[in-house]
Design brief:
The structure holds 2 protein chains of 2 kinds. Chain A is mainly α. Chain A contains 4 helices and no strands. By secondary structure, chain B is mainly α. Classes of the chains: A mainly alpha, B mainly alpha.
């Protein structure tokens, strides 16, 4: 029974692990580029959570298939996947803006290390 | 008429395109497109307010698809109120923007216009949508436009905005995760539908997790204490017009989203009794009010003082949510309007001072009252409103919050509101005293301009995170940008296009104060009705 519980849910544990890795990268890494990587991992874990929630074993794409009939259990729910397509677009835009900010920071301060940049900001405002 | 809810963000999205392509050809066309579009959305939102008061709410089904399949747009008293705030501030800042941007961000104005329209589209979309996932999309649209507008400030701005972006991405991610939990438990994204299906799921751990995640995510976005860390630097280093646009409305729309969740998605009972989220928000807010006021007192840079005061003021709104009774929530909602007007005018005045004198440090403001009489009169009105002196608008929201605290029997909140009003009196009266003081001979006119390069080279001393600002000698001028720094322009009163929005906002502060009963009766009473029942 507990094995079933694990097998049925293991993707969620992996998603949670990815989420924590992402948050760890955002909060603990001092290099801003690594923070962006952490942010991307964090966002990806959320995408995977949605995809996993919409998965049905033995289900197929939500287009009517005469052999399978009208039984909804035979088809995947398309909505979470569509939502995640939108969320991926949003995520790419955020990453793009983050990288362009890093470019500006690097040109200005010659470093992406948070401590170095903050020190330079204080020394020469 | 029934298309009003979708029309407002649609106009603004289209404006953003038009402003971008217009601005590519001629700067003036970009400005004209933005002004027209934002003015149109302002008129439509005012028509929306009138319609809601006269005929009740409007529900529009996008593309003719009825919910829960399609996306629903809702114009009810709460969203009409919020959209009116957003578009009013938006229109006034667009009027203010070109003159200020030409001085502070020369060469980049063409990109400011589409970003402003996009920001307003995102914020109005957040207010009007009736779909929790749609809200996420607009939340991020608004956030992306805001990052762009804020990052063009001085050369430290990208660092501050990067921190904001990381906080914002985590906040948005938490919210999205909460939406996922809700969808997989209740099977719908439509707010009205969720409200129907959730009551039987209140004991479900997934729904509880969803509520916690969504409120935390939005709390990060609204800079709810202690998740405000990104805010002071961002507002401090931003161009004045961007700060004047974003500080008044951006965090408030996230607060609005929490109120929307609280009233319309989860039944109030759920967040008050089953999962005491509101009580928790209330205590965080109480901490934030004190923290913001105390930190604002310690600042000498006007913009940094305003930024910390924003942390305190947004907490008043959160306190209204935390009190979770009709008076408290009316106070919080009214404070959204009041604070949008007050903080908007204060940041815009900061920009006008910078344009005419290059000054940002309060101790150097002596003589401004004579130099810029109308601007400083507006500053005085806004400062009195921030302190909460009748008949300015600020008094009435605090009054309702006090009534709410009495109703809740929470004397600690009562005391905190009073104490923080006294604290804000300390830091605002200090500024008022300074601007009406006679300058020492010749300090303002000649050396202020001559000292620009010297001030920039001397560095002005610690203006970073831990050192108190203004340690360095000499007047510090805020043109440390790597390129395109301009010396302050000579002249007395602020130029017309900048003065007009400032005066309009100052008059609105007085009018809202005098006519607040109308707003409360017509718009806010119906909003808080679910709480009194």
């Amino acid at each position: 029974m507990t094995v079933d519980l694990f097998i049925g849910r293991y993707p969620y544990y992996l998603v949670a692990l990815l989420l924590i890795i992402g948050l760890y990268g955002i909060t603990r890494k001092r290099n801003m580029l690594k923070k962006v990587i952490g942010m991307t991992i964090f966002q990806t874990s959320i995408y995977l959570f949605f995809i996993q929630g919409a998965t049905k074993i033995g289900g197929t794409i939500p287009i009517f298939d005469p052999e399978r009939g009208l039984d909804p259990a035979q088809y995947l729910n398309p909505l979470p996947q569509v939502m995640i397509l939108t969320a991926i677009v949003v995520g790419v835009a955020i990453t793009g803006v983050a990288l362009s900010l890093l470019l500006l920071i690097y040109r200005e301060y010659g470093s992406l290390d948070e401590d170095t940049v903050l020190r330079k900001m204080r020394e020469d405002p | 008429m029934n298309q009003i809810p979708v029309l407002i963000p649609a106009i603004l999205l289209f404006t953003s395109f038009a402003a971008f392509f217009g601005g590519m050809i001629r700067l003036r066309w970009g400005y004209a497109a933005t002004l027209l579009g934002v003015a149109a959305s302002f008129l439509v939102s005012m028509a929306g307010v009138a319609h809601v008061i006269a005929n009740g709410e409007i529900r529009y089904h996008l593309g003719g698809w009825a919910p829960p399949v399609g996306i629903e747009w809702v114009l009810d008293p709460l969203s009409a109120f919020m959209v009116a705030i957003v578009t009013t501030i938006g229109l006034l800042v667009v009027v203010y923007l070109p003159r200020s941007a030409r001085f502070e961000i020369p060469g980049k104005e063409a990109f400011a216009y589409p970003s402003v329209a996009l920001l307003l589209a995102g914020l109005t979309g957040m207010c009007l949508t009736g779909d929790v996932f749609n809200l996420y999309v607009f939340l991020e649209i608004a956030a992306l436009a805001a990052y762009a507008l804020l990052a063009v400030g001085d050369r430290r701005a990208p660092v501050a905005v990067f921190r904001y972006l990381v906080f914002g991405a985590v906040g948005g991610g938490f919210y999205l995760l909460g939406v996922g939990f809700l969808y997989f438990s209740a099977g719908t994204l439509n707010m009205a539908d969720l409200a129907e299906r959730l009551p039987e799921l209140y004991q479900s751990r997934a729904v509880i997790a969803a509520a916690v995640l969504m409120v935390t995510g939005l709390g990060l976005k609204m800079a709810l204490f202690p998740m405000h860390l990104w805010l002071p630097d961002v507002y401090n280093f931003a161009p004045s017009a961007s700060a004047g646009l974003i500080a008044p409305i951006m965090t408030k729309v996230s607060a609005y989203a929490i109120i929307r969740l609280f009233l319309d998605v989860f039944h109030p009972v759920f967040l008050i009794e089953i999962l005491p989220v509101t009580a928790f928000i209330g205590w965080l807010a109480a901490g934030g009010i004190l923290f913001g006021s105390v930190m604002a007192m310690a600042q000498t840079d006007l913009r940094r003082m305003l930024a910390y005061s924003s942390v305190g003021q947004i907490s008043y709104i959160a306190l209204g949510i935390g009190l979770a009774n009709p008076f408290g929530l009316i106070g919080g909602l009214l404070h959204m309007l009041n604070h949008a007007l007050m903080k908007g005018v204060l940041f815009l005045i900061g920009g006008a001072i910078r344009l005419r004198t290059g000054l940002v440090e309060v101790p150097e403001f002596a003589g401004l009252g004579r130099k810029m009489p109308w601007t400083m009169a507006s500053f005085t009105i806004a400062a009195l409103a921030m302190v909460g002196i009748p008949p300015t608008a600020g008094f009435f929201s605090k009054y309702y919050l006090l009534l709410g605290s009495v109703d809740a029997g929470n004397w600690i909140f009562f005391a905190i509101i009073i104490v923080s009003s006294l604290l804000s009196a300390v830091y605002f009266f200090r500024v008022i005293e300074m601007i009406y003081r006679e300058p020492e001979e010749g300090v303002i006119s000649e050396p202020a301009v001559a000292a620009v390069p010297a001030g920039a080279m001397a560095g002005g001393g610690g203006h970073g995170d831990s050192l108190p600002p203004g340690l360095g000698g000499g007047p510090r001028h805020d043109d440390r940008r790597s390129g395109g720094a301009r010396p302050p322009e000579e002249g007395g009163e602020a130029p017309g296009t900048m003065l007009l929005p400032i005066l309009v906002l100052a008059v609105l502060i007085l009018l809202v104060g005098i006519f607040n009963v109308l707003i409360v009766d017509r718009l806010l009473e119906p909003v808080v009705a679910p709480l009194s029942g």
